[in-house]
Design a protein that fits this description.
- This protein is an alpha/beta fold.
- It has a single domain, classed as Glycerol-3-phosphate (1)-acyltransferase (3-Layer(aba) Sandwich), CATH 3.40.1130.10.
- The chain has 7 helices and 7 strands.
- Strands 1-7-6-2-5-3-4 form a 7-stranded mixed β-sheet, with helices on both faces.
Amino acid sequence: MLSDFARRVLPLLGHLQVTGDVPDGPGPGSIVAANHSSLIDPGVVLAALARRGVHDPVVLAAAGLWRIPLLGGRLRAEGHIPVHRGDRRASDALDLAAEALAEGRVVVVYPEGRLPRRLDSGDRDPEPFRTGLARLALATGAPVVPLGQTGARRITSGSRAKQLAGLATSPLRRPDLHVHLGAPIHLTGTPAEATAQAHAAVARARSTAAGAAEPTVSEDAVELPERAPAPR
């Protein structure tokens, strides 16, 4: 239901483009590792995955979301996984994610573990990753699909008032949103080495998304004739 909601609502907020290094979406039992830049970007990611044929991913998200009325009930019913940061239950999330992967579900992870604390609306490379993604991938052998997304901060970023204003005006502005899915990779080495591999892959995907979102001049554009000099 959440994926379908994102797919239907997101076009009202912005213009979404989805590209990939491979034509198919993430296969069953894959981990999607996404950069996290805005409160709205989970909707961007879900809508992008739905376009690639993934309609029922399992998302690891902050446990506080489960306390929100209605939303918490949907998260629980659809099998999404709460992450209790700084709690002895934090490791339970990886165990539940491993079970979902074994069942053939696609698992979405935000390896940064939090939103950036800056207030501007620009996009940057992801912040340092926590090791949970690497430990999950190394333990299960699941392929990791790096996902880079840009533009979500033009809908929600900055102070609470600015985020509400951005959300309210986005149907008029309809900012460009771009998601790029990299080719699947298998992480290797120690958790620290695997974390570095994942960070580099997601950073590349985000850079590709940012480049694709920039306006370009078509190579076959008609060249305008030079203006004739003014008569003397």
